[in-house]
Structure formats: structure tokens, C-alpha cells
Amino acid sequence: MAFVEPGTPSELARATRDGFQSAYGAPAQVVGRAPGRVNLIGEHTDYNRGLVLPLALPHATYAAVAERDDDRVRIASEQQTEPWEGTLDTLGPGQVSGWAAYVAGVLWAMRESGWDVRGVDVFVDGTVPLGAGLSSSAALECSVAVAVARLRGIELTEEARRELVDACIRAETEVAGAPTGGMDQTASLLASQGSALLIDFDLHRHEAVSLPLAASGLALLVTDTRVSHALNDGGYASRRADCEAAAAALDLPSLRDADLAAVEGLEDERVRRRARHVVTEIDRVSAAVDAVRAGDWGLVGSLFLASHASMRDDFEISCAELDVAVTTAVEAGAVGARMTGGGFGGSSIALVPEERLEAVCRAIDAAFAAAGFGAPAHLRAVPSSAADLVEG
User: Fold this and answer.
1) How far is 386 from 42, CA to CA, in rounded Å?
2) Active centre residues (catalytic)
3) Which parts of 25-175 fold into alpha helices (H)?
């Protein structure tokens, strides 16, 4: 059993610069770094104008970028065999597909918002596991966004970061075609080290929530089931459509304004269950924040388990591998566990006493082998800093 290590920013920035040099035969001008994220609690609540509580991971994506003297855009990656090439006028919706759409979409959205984006060469590398529900797509978008902002002489103030959040959301929803709600980009660009980020999508506010895990003898374990995870394959969109149908049936602008009694009166059984998850999950986020601030980690663990049951039974986005990871983690000593991310595969997160961390990993590995599943991967979720430039 070995943890997926995040690597050091200086080493990874240097490797990304080397990759850029190899791909294009010239040096990069800047390297942007943006973290993946793991969500403590609050799943499928962002696009329902609810609450979420993610944290930035130490695992990050790096984008080496240089401006060109023409309108060409070239995109390559250490993790992808096929580069993409086009012009500034061929970056928008319906014009780019696959992984390159996340990069092209950022450039398109920044231009649409009035940024003076020029032709660029881009090379990306990183350590955010792909398809694991840890927001590798947002990390890719945000690493490119901060790099291009620096090239245009923009200081990364909070106001600028918020503009970049909006651009990256448009890239994902309008160009890449994944109907996500904005949590991932917000966490990647606005998180702070040592804290989770409480985001209120109704009031458009965020605040840091300190996570004194080490002082409490605890660690956050993420288990990547390695079950394929994609947000633009229809499952995510159908859940979002059900939530919108529930809000419409309740004559509300969003499920943020719904109460559980009204939800239980919905006639459509599937829509009712989807709405029930959202309403109760928003309440669980508030309760989790209060519990973290009070140091009541036992309650946090109980909320994790209730969240997982809700996603499994009402929202129906879990899978056998996630259920085994969650159940086994708790049996092996975790305080609580839940699936995390958009669902249909991806990862689980467990709150584990530090001295039980390796034992929990071994137990999950053994349970996967006994069930005939492929071997999972594990990483430590250490609350880390937001996207920025890597100097040197």
C-alpha cells in the first residue's frame, strides 16, 4: 500500500517547463499551479444554490504557458497523447472536444469576459488523479487561468480570482459540456491552507473553516476507487434536471428555499428522493461546520455516514466500490466516511485517527480484492492553498 504523493511545486513546475520546452522547442514564460479538491460534505448542492464544504488538495495541475505573436493556440499534456491546435476563433462551444476543451474553454471564456487574451502555447502536467472525483478538470482550468492572467499583467486579487472562477465555470459548462455548479473552480481559486472553504451559492459568499486535524490526531483519507468518473456522460445532468423539476413543482427558484415537509409532498417519487437529498444535505453542511468548530469529530463522522446513505439511496450516485470503501473504512476504525464528488465512481473520503490510517488502507485494499474489484489508490487530503503562480 502506497499513497499517491502530490510532489513538490518546484519539482513539478520544473518538469512542466521541461515538457513545454520539449513540445514547443522554446521556454515557457509562466507556470500556473491549481489544486484539485475534495469535498468534505455538500454534494450536488452547489447548483441548487446551497452550501458546500470543500478543501484544496496538495495534489495539483501545472500549466506552462507562453504567448505567441499570432492567433494560434497549441495545447499539449504529459498525460495525453494527442495535442490540440487551433486559433482564438475556434475555441468556443461545439468547436473543441475531449480534454483540450477545458483549456480552450478557459481562453474562450476569458475573451468573452473582455480579457485581452492572445495566442498561446500551453503544456500541462500534474498529480491530480484523473476521473477520481477530485476535480482534475477544474484544476486544469484554473492553472491555465492564473497563468494567462499573469501573462496579461493581472494581479491575482480576490476580485480577479472571482472573475477567473466565473470564466472557468463557463469553460466547463459551455465548452466542455459538464453541467457542474461551480464548487470546484471556487475551491481551487479561493481556498486557503489549513482550512476548508464554506461556500454559500445563494448569498455568493465564502469563508474559511479551520480544520485542526493534526491537533486532534486525525487525518483525511481519500480512496480512489478507480471506477471511471465523468461529469458530461448524462448521469450528472439527469440529477440536475430532477432537482430543477422539484423546484419547479414547488414553485421555488431553487431547492435552497425548500423545506423537507414540502419536499415529502412531491408526487413524483424519484424527484421527491432527489430533492430530499439536497435539502437534507444542505442541513448536514451547516451541522458539519458547527461540529468542526466545536471539535465534535464524532458528529462529523455521523454526518459523513448520513450523507453517504442519502447519496446512495435518494440520489442514487454511489456504486458497489464506493459502498465497500465507506463501510470497510468505518469497520477498520474510521470515525466516518462517505463518497465524495459527483458520483458514479470516483472517490470516498474518511475521517481516520492517525494511528489507524494504514490499517484502514490495508482493510480497504483487502475488501476490494475479496470482492473482485481492481486495486484502489489512496491519498492524504491535507488542506492546501489556492491556485497561484510557481516562480523559478
Assistant:
1) 20
2) 184
3) 100-112, 136-151, 158-170
C-alpha cell recorded at residue 94: 461545439
Region of residue 204 (left: phi > 0; alpha: psi -120 to 50; beta: else): left
- How close are the terminal C-alpha atoms of the chain, in Å? 34
Closest by CA to 21, choosing from 101, 86, 76, is: 76
Strand, helix or coil for residue 210: strand
Write out residues in the chain with pLDDT < 50, as ranges: none
What are the CA-CA distances from residue 99 to residues 46, 87, 88 (Å)? 23, 17, 17
> What pLDDT is attached to residue 382?
97
Give the 3-state secondary structure of residue 358: helix
- The dihedral of CA 28, 9, 35, 155: what is its sign? negative
Q: Is 340 helix (H, G, I), strand (E, B) or coil?
A: strand
Rounded to 5 degrees, φ, ψ at 143 are: -65, -40
Residue 388 parent element (H or E): strand 388-389
pTM for the model: 0.94
CATH architecture of 214-380: 2-Layer Sandwich (3.30)
Note the CATH number of domain 9-210+384-389.
3.30.230.10
Give the DSSP letter of residue 375.
Answer: P
How many angstroms separate the CA atoms of 386 and 146, rounded?
A: 11
Domain residue ranges of the chain, discontinuous segments joined by +: 9-210+384-389, 214-380
